[in-house]
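User: Predict the structure for this protein chain, please.
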Amino acid sequence: MVGREAVDGPGWPTGELRLGVERVGGRSALTAVYRSAPFHLGHPSRRGAGGDGVADVIVQQVGPGLFPGERLRTSLTVGPGAALTLRGQSATKVYPCPDPIGRPAEAVTVADVAAGGQLVLLPGEVIPYRDAAYCQATLVDVAPGARFAASEILTAGRAAMSEVDAYAVLDLRLRVGRGGRPVLVERTLLDPTTRPAVAPGRHGPWPCAGTLALVGFGAAGRRLGRSAAGDAVWWAGDGDDHVAVVRLLGETAQAVRAVIDRLLGEVLAGADSRRVEEAEGNLATRPWTLGG
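Assistant: Here is the predicted structure, written as structure tokens:
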């Protein structure tokens, strides 16, 4: 449904956002911005010691949600040593689709992160309405020495409207590569009619599921562990110094988001500490190699 071959397909896109971030005067700054409806940008803030850290941008969508046939594209370029965090202001609401095979709502994000750069994507949770059909692809290329993190939260729908797993299909894809070589490829395909999400081995009774993907964070990403017995959100992480993935299940999107934010904060703090030590010559460094 959605892949790199669809990025420049007929009629693409109905809404577009393009951002470029560079290191300017010791700070991460937006140097290229283009948007069309429904995208709207908040004023970027800067986080980090001395205000020279990450360019933190909130993206709003001025419409009520995604409708059948909508095709949104986001293109991001992060320059050497620059850092961008892109946050969704609110949930992604996907409206009913009478023809899920022909005209689903689609969203593609394409990003390139240069050496020493960092990109963090934190979209709002996906809320699929009854008979909704949604296809999403996130396609990222990171250079050696760059870092990438992305979260995803899926809900079962509008429980208050008795719309639990009543959508038609959700097709979510993630591909991360280094120099064109894939290091993380995932696809989440949910079709509750043929494969109920409550079946064993899937989401079970949990109405919200989350994922946190980490690339290039070193040991900070590898040491995530898992939730403790009795925690409100069940989660576990696995990976190595190059790629790590955390899976989460919870009762609410807010609870899952809180755990993702905490884990990501710990990973970023640990990775930043290691970079400082490397810069001061306290740690030996070596180039990233696939599987090495």
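Helices lie at 219-222, 253-279.
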